[in-house]
Amino acid sequence: MECFLSERMESVLKELGNEPDLAPLVDFSLSIPSPFHGGGQIKLIVLGQDPTVHNAQSRSRISTVLDLNCKGNLYKYLSQLCEGLGVKLDNVYATNLFKNFFQIPPTKMQDTVCMQFLPFWLPVLKEELGRFPDVPVITLGQPVLKSLAFGTECLVRSYWGYIKGWREGVYGEFSFVPANHNALNRPIFPFPHQGNGTRTAFYRDNFEFYLKFMKGHIEEG
Question: What is the pLDDT of residues 119-148, one digit of tens each?
Answer without folding.
Answer: 999 999 999 999 999 999 999 999 999 999
